[in-house]
Structures are given as C-alpha cells and as structure tokens.
Amino acid sequence: MTNQKNAYLFYKHSDDIDSKLEEVKKLGRKYDFKLVDHPSEASIIASIGGDGAFLQAVRKTHFREDCLYIGVNDDSVGFYTDFHLDNLERIELGMQSELIEVLRYPTLEVTIDGMKSFHCLNEFSIRSNIIKTFVIDVHIDGLYFETFRGDGLVVSTPTGSTAYNKSLGGAVVDPKLKAMQLTEIASVNNSQYRTLGAPLLLSKGRELVLKIVQDGNDHPIIGLDNEAMSIRHSHEVRIKVSDKEIKTLRMKDNLFLHKVKRSFL
Ligand code: NAP
Ligand code: MN
Prior knowledge:
Largest sheet: 16 strands, mixed
Order of helices and strands: EHEEHEEHEEEEEHEEEEEEH
CATH superfamily of the largest domain: Probable inorganic polyphosphate/atp-NAD kinase, domain 2
Structural class: alpha/beta
Bound molecules: NADP nicotinamide-adenine-dinucleotide phosphate, manganese (II) ion
CATH architecture of the largest domain: Sandwich
Strand content: 35-45%
Number of domains: 2
CATH class of the largest domain: Mainly Beta
Helix content: 10-25%
C-alpha cells in the first residue's frame, strides 16, 4: 500500500514558486512527508496555483478516490484552495492535522455517445461553436422534458455551483447535497420554443440526457471543468451524479459556508 505520507506536487514551475516551495518542502520533511516523482505513488496530491490548477490536478491524476487532494494557492485563496504559499503557519497546521478528516466533493459522470465516460468536479458545459442557435432535447429519467434553443447548457456539481453556474443565475449549493444543477446559457423563449427558464436542481440517482439536434450545428464545444473536449461530433450526452467523490482536507475554519462568505460577501 502507498505510504499515507507520500505526497506529489502538481504545478507549473517558475522561479518564484520554486523558491517559495523550498520552505514548504522543509516543513514537509519535519512532519515526515515524502515527496514522490509520480502521482501514482502518492496518497496526497497537492496543487500549487488557483482553483483552475486544482481542477487540472484532479483531472490529470484521473479523479483518484484513494488520494487526498489539497489546493495551495499562489494568488488569492479560492474555493478548492485552503492554503496559501505565503502562509506557512497554516500549512504547518494542515500537516499536523490528522489527515483522515476529510471533506468529500461529489463529481459528475458524463458519457458521450454511449462510449466514453468522463468526470467533472466543477461542471459539464456544452456550447454552440457558431453564431447560429443550438438545439438540444433534454430528457430526464427517460422523460422528454424540453427542447432547449440558445447558446448552451451547463450542468454543475455543488462545488462548481459557485463558478460558471453562479454567473448564469444558478443557486449556490451545499456540497453535502449530492446533486447536479442544470442552467441555461441564453435560451430563446417564444411561442414556439419554451424551456423551464430557471435553474433545475436534480438529485443523485437521476439521469439527464441531452440529445443534440443534428441540424448543421452539431459540432458543439464541450467543456469538462476547465478543459475542452476533443470529440467533435456528438449526438447524445448522459450525465449523472457519480459515486466517485473527491476527498480534500477538512480544516475547521474553511468549510463551505466560510468559503462562500469569504469569496462573495
Ligand atoms: P479561468 O477562466 O481562468 O477562471 C475562472 C475563474 O473562476 C477563476 O477566478 C477561478 O479561480 C474561478 N473558479 C474556478 N472554479 C471555481 C469554483 N468552483 N468556485 C468559485 N470560483 C471558481 O478558468 P479556471 O481558473 O481554469 O476555472 C475553470 C472554471 O471557470 C470552469 O470550470 C467554469 O466554472 C469557470 N468558467 C466561468 C465562466 C463564467 O462565469 N461565465 C465561463 C467559463 C468558465 P482561480 O483564479 O483560483 O483559478
Ligand atoms: Mn484560473
């Protein structure tokens, strides 16, 4: 079994970050952490950078469930980043804590054309890549629900609810709720086309199916968190709340409501 104190650092090298990291590495040695060269040998994966870096660290290491993910910011403190490179005292506090106390963040499982599955920690997004409006039939648990016409749709996780979802007027959701939220990007609503026109929060166990109407605008831009997907032609996307959860260190002064307050109020 991988040593519980094997840590992998995920970051883009720069002189500034490398020099700040020296102090963090010194602290790590004091608390018996061992740096490993490959994430597969790690039990702890720390991203250095903003929320975007955290999302990339989770994606590039394949959403590991047997790992604790920790975000260390180099700029301002974000949603997934509970530590700051300039605050060594707090990093030390984190290293002293029992690493078994964890927060669990729900993810989404996305299947495209019944073939490939992907995970998302923030959101799945689908947008038209041309100026023409884009048409999607939305089905929920096998029921035809609505036909969307507009720029696109976003399906967010609870932790992703404070990102793209929030800018679309979606609700901020407590990550203890295992749910996904569907929001619209500029839907066209008139006597011919009608959508719900409000964010829709769906519980775990439901399946959302988006059928892309093939009318010449069927090369959408598909986003998985901060990564664009390479599939160019797609017909059907199935989305559900996954059983896979991302674990992160639980610091008692940095729970979900602290983060919402700190970021927005
Ligand atoms: P980015 O375009 O560089 O920045 C997006 C901003 O959102 C950054 O300030 C980022 O923080 C912040 N952010 C990311 N996840 C967040 C979360 N869960 N809660 C609150 N803020 C969050 O892209 P990025 O940094 O790689 O982040 C990717 C995310 O950007 C996507 O997953 C999507 O949610 C969001 N996005 C938003 C819009 C919009 O609001 N209209 C459009 C496209 C994408 P950091 O600076 O710490 O990275
Ligand atoms: Mn960013």
